[in-house]
Amino acid sequence: MKPTWVVCIKQVPREPVFKRTGDAYQIDRDRVEGILNPYDRRAIELAVNLKEKQGGEVVVLSMGPPQAEEALREALAFGVDRAVLLSDPAFAGADTLATAYTLAAGVRKLGHFSLILCGARTLDSDTAQVGPQMAEFLDLPMAAYVGKATCKERSLRVERTLDGVRERLLLPLPALITVAGQMQAERPLALSSVEEAFGKPKVQRWGRQDLEVDPGRIGWEGSATVADEYAVWKHSRSGEIIQAKPAEAADRILDILVKRNVLGG
Ligand SMILES: Cc1cc2nc3c(=O)[nH]c(=O)nc-3n(C[C@H](O)[C@H](O)[C@H](O)COP(=O)(O)OP(=O)(O)OC[C@H]3O[C@@H](n4cnc5c(N)ncnc54)[C@H](O)[C@@H]3O)c2cc1C
User: Fold this and answer.
1) Ligand 1 atom at minimum distance from 64 CA
2) Is 46 within a domain?
3) Atom nearest to 133 CA in ligand 1
C-alpha cells in the first residue's frame, strides 16, 4: 500500500481578539484575519519531501470554523494532494484535549496512514499538547520537536536538538512527529500552484455526523479546561539619543545601565 502522510494544520489569528461566552473567554475567530501556523508550514514541507522520496500522497487535516479552509487551500499550493476540514458548531470551544480527540477521529476516518506530522506548537495558544495527545489517542510512537526525518523501509529516522544536545531516534511506522524550527529551506511558491489550489474544490468537509465520536468528548462539552481570565500584554519603548563625545557618551550609557540594574548593580 502506498504511504499516506497526514499533516495537521491550524489556522491561527494574526492578532488574538477575545469574546466572552458565559464565564469563559474564547478567541473570536470570526473577527480576526487567519494565517497558516508557521510551524505547520514546516511540517507540510517535510511531508512533501517524504512523498517525493517515498511516493504516496500528502493529506492535510484541520479542525476549525469554515474560514479555516483558506489555510488548507494554502497547503494545497505547497504540493499537498488532499485536504479535509473538520468543521461543525459542535466542535467549537475545544481545548487541547477535545481538539486532539476530534483530530484523532478524523485520522481514523481517513483509514490508512504512515505518518502524522504536526507543528511543534502554535502561534496563538502555544501549548504544544495537541500532537502528543493525538499520539496517545491513536496509540502511536511519537517524537516531538523533530528537525529532520528520513524514511527507511517501515521506520522513520528522526533528528532533533534539545537543550543543545542532538538526538537521533528510530520510530517504527505508523508514528506521529511534531516538527520544530531547524529544517531544510521551504520551497518557493509558484503562482500557477496558487491558482490551481484556489480554483479546485479539493477541500472535503466532515462534521460531527461523519466521525465516530462521543458527543461528551468534543467541543466545549468535552473540554477539561476553560480560560476564565485573559490579559493582553502591552509594552512600550522609548529611545534616548546621547549627544556627547565618545568617552563621555560611554560613561553616561554605563551610568544608565547601572541605574536600571541591567549590569547587576
Ligand atoms: C487552558 C486552556 C483553555 C482554553 N480554553 C479555550 C476556550 O475556552 N476556548 C477556545 O476557543 N480555545 C481555548 N483554548 C485554546 C485551544 O485549546 C486551542 O485552540 C486548541 O486546542 C489547539 O491548541 P494549541 O493551539 O495550543 O495547539 P498546539 O498543541 O500548540 O499545536 C501543535 C500542533 O497541533 C496541530 N493542531 C493544533 N490545533 C489544531 C487544529 N485545530 N486543527 C489541526 N491541527 C491542529 C498543529 O499541527 C499544531 O502545530 C484553550 C487553551 C488552553 C491551554
Assistant:
1) 41
2) yes
3) 29
The sign of the dihedral angle between the CA atoms of 65, 70, 71, 72 is positive
Residue 140's Cα: distance from chain center in Å? 19
Which of 72, 121, 122, 134 best tests ligand 1's pocket when mutated (most atoms within 8 Å of CB)?
122
Which residue puts its alpha carbon closest to atom 33 of ligand 1? Answer: 119
What residues pair up with 175 in beta bridges, in sequence order?
Answer: 115
User: For the chain, how many structural domains are there in total?
Assistant: 1
Domain assignment of residue 233, yes or no: no
- Torsion on CA atoms 157, 160, 164, 167, rounded to nearest 10: -30
Query: For residue 168, what is its C-alpha cell?
Result: 537521533
Give the residue numbers spanning the domain of 43.
4-217
For position 150, which CATH number holds?
3.40.50.620
pLDDT, tens digit, for every residue of 17-49? 777 777 777 667 666 778 899 999 999 999 999
125 Cα to the center of ligand 1, angstroms: 6
Q: Is the pLDDT of residue 210 over 80?
A: yes
The DSSP bridge pattern shows strands 24-27 and 82-86 to be: unpaired
- Is residue 138 within 8 A of residue 107, CB to CB? The reply is yes
Give the Cα separation of 93 and 61 in Å (integer): 18
Helix (H, G, I), strand (E, B) or coil at 250: helix
pTM: 0.84
Ligand 1 center to 35 CA (angstroms): 15
